[in-house]
Write a structure and sequence with these properties.
Radius of gyration of chain A: 18 Å
CATH superfamily of chain B: ABC transporter involved in vitamin B12 uptake, BtuC
Low-confidence stretches of chain B: none
CATH superfamily of the largest domain in chain A: P-loop containing nucleotide triphosphate hydrolases
CATH class of chain B: Mainly Alpha
Mean pLDDT of chain A: 82
CATH class of the largest domain in chain A: Alpha Beta
Number of domains of chain A: 2
Order of helices and strands of chain B: HHHHHHHHHHHHHH
Structural class of chain B: mainly alpha
CATH architecture of chain B: Orthogonal Bundle
Strand content of chain A: 15-25%
Oligomer: heterodimer
Largest sheet of chain B: none
Number of strands of chain A: 9
Helix content of chain A: 40-55%
Largest interface: A-B, 34 and 30 residues
Number of helices of chain A: 10
Shape of chain B: globular
Mean pLDDT of chain B: 82
Order of helices and strands of chain A: EEEHEHEHHHHEHEHEEHH
């Protein structure tokens, strides 16, 4: 059984349907990139996968393990965070919010998990540093560590490289790639970056007037890829 | 100097001075705790808006001749806090506009009611003391001190129990929501706590100056400290110190209590700003 699958999924909000009949599935260890133009419904899809918004029709199915552990999420950065006085340690630890039952304080196990993920993303030296003093790439690494505290099987990333310079973007992509290859974490990433999609992903989901879902090779050979590229150039 | 000290020791021998100090410190402590969250969530003005609502509610209570008006004021303020946060989400009137609307509206209606129905001979004095805090902090009874102490302990306890959740919701609401934290509930909780604090603090600084108690300690602490925990603890300490110091000064020089405390808060803010510059360079 796939880790996560969508069958005949229709998405929208306020009763308006914007994405029709979406079919795709993600196996454990996959690296899926979702591309599409602005307003095509990428973020709506992400919210639906996270269970924050009910689909108009159809449903998202997850395997039992995922149902139990949930999905790690890396949202787009917001204004509040830019000048937030919080240490790296506090932020990573906040990934351990327990969803099933209420515990006012973090357990020893939570702290060990946070420690482990800080190490995994090479943040040990900056544990005590203040989040707002870090560079954009370092901040994203902190948020990745937090997402891993929430769920260790699958990560959902919402345009993680927005606002980063090319060098840092490349670094972040290779970190995500490492998480996927070395630790077998399933990655679902929303992106504008078609080139990165072609370079790193195993599977590509394109949302637009037409939808496409398939392996990277199938995407490169399809008509949609050339049409989308042309549009990118014109735009 | 010796004269001042003997004056202070004389005042300190009266129980009503002790009551004032205890209540003042407790109020300042409570209001500073949520300050960090409110400043960061861009809700600095919710305190202002709600305090004007409390002013309006007080006017209504006075007109209706309610004997125990604190509970009435509390209920009205909590309801308005909930409404403000609800409207902040998805309505035609957006966050800052709805706060401005409710706050100015309540102020106007409150003053109007006081003016039309007031039985007091010194109307402008009444209004002034509700807006800028009264000397009534020096006429507190033992029961009022107990009520204030219990409410304060409640606020501090709730804050400590939900500290981690409040941090998570403040720092990143969408992440917290995605991992299954009920962000709506915690936003509601924050609003209710704030409503409580404002009603408790009305006596001390009055409804125009409450925002100062809420945001100044947090802003000062944020100049220097770098983690959420240290900022919160530091702002609580600043608040307690400023309020203690402000009350003592105001008693000795017979200055208005609320305004003096706020003045000390402003002074501390500048001290911490300089400290922050200094630490940043080192």
């Amino acid at each position: 059984m796939p880790q996560l699958s969508c069958k005949k999924l229709c998405l929208g909000y306020d009763g308006r349907e914007i994405v029709h009949n979406l079919n795709f599935s993600v196996e454990k260890g996959d690296y899926l990139i979702i591309i599409g133009e602005n307003g095509s419904g990428k973020t709506t899809l992400m919210k639906t996968i996270l269970g924050l918004q009910p689909p108009v029709r159809g449903k998202v199915e997850t395997d039992d393990k995922l149902k139990k552990n949930g999905i790690g999420y890396l949202p787009q950065q917001n204004m509040v965070q830019r000048d937030f006085p919080a240490s790296v340690w506090e932020i990573v630890l906040s990934g351990c919010q327990n969803k099933k039952s209420f515990h006012p304080f973090y357990s020893k196990k939570d702290k060990e998990l946070a420690e482990e993920n800080i190490k995994k993303l090479g943040l040990t030296d900056m544990k005590k540093r203040c989040y707002r003093e870090l560079s954009g790439g370092q901040q994203q690494r902190v948020l990745l560590a937090r997402a891993l505290c929430a769920a260790s099987d699958i990560l959902l990333l919402d345009e993680p490289v927005t606002g980063l310079d090319p060098k840092v973007t490349e670094e972040l992509y290779s970190i995500i790639d490492e998480l996927n290859k070395k630790y077998g974490i399933t990655i679902i990433m929303i992106s504008h970056d078609v080139n990165a999609a072609v370079k790193y992903s195993d599977k590509i989901l394109y949302i637009g007037d037409e939808t496409f879902f398939g392996t990277k090779q199938e995407y490169i050979e399809s008509d949609i890829s050339s049409a989308f590229k042309k549009e990118e150039k014109n735009g | 100097m010796a004269e001042l000290i003997s004056k202070l020791t004389l005042y300190m021998s009266y129980p009503f001075v002790w009551y004032a100090v205890i209540v003042g410190v407790l109020i300042a402590l409570c209001s500073s705790l949520l300050g960090v969250t409110l400043v960061l969530k861009r809700f600095s003005f919710i305190g202002d808006g709600l305090s004007h609502v409390a002013f309006g509610a007080m006017a209504i209570a006075a007109v209706l001749n309610l004997s125990n008006n604190i509970f009435f004021v509390l209920a009205v303020t909590v309801i308005c806090a909930i409404l403000l946060l609800r409207t902040g989400r998805n309505t035609k009137i957006k966050g800052d506009a709805s706060i401005a609307m409710i706050s100015v509206g309540a102020l106007a209606v409150g003053y109007l009611l006081m003016n039309i129905f007031s039985t007091s001979s010194n109307l402008s004095g009444d209004v002034c003391s509700t807006l800028f805090g009264s000397t009534s902090i020096l006429t507190l009874t033992g029961v009022e001190v107990w009520v204030c102490a219990v409410l304060s302990i409640l606020v501090v306890a709730v804050f400590i129990i939900f500290y981690n959740k409040i941090f998570a919701v403040t720092f990143d609401e969408s992440f917290a929501e995605a991992v299954g934290t009920h962000t709506g509930f915690y936003n509601l909780l924050i609003a209710i706590i704030i409503a409580f604090i404002i009603v408790i603090a009305m006596n001390l600084v009055g409804s125009l100056l409450i925002s100062a108690l809420v945001i100044f300690p947090a802003l000062s602490a944020m100049r220097v400290f770098k983690s959420f925990k240290s900022v919160t603890i530091c702002s609580a300490c600043i608040a307690v110190f400023c309020s203690l110091f402000g009350i003592i000064i105001s008693i000795m020089f017979s200055a208005p209590v609320g305004a003096t405390i706020v003045a000390v808060d402003i002074f501390m803010f500048f001290v911490f700003m300089v400290l922050g510059k200094f630490c940043g360079k080192a």
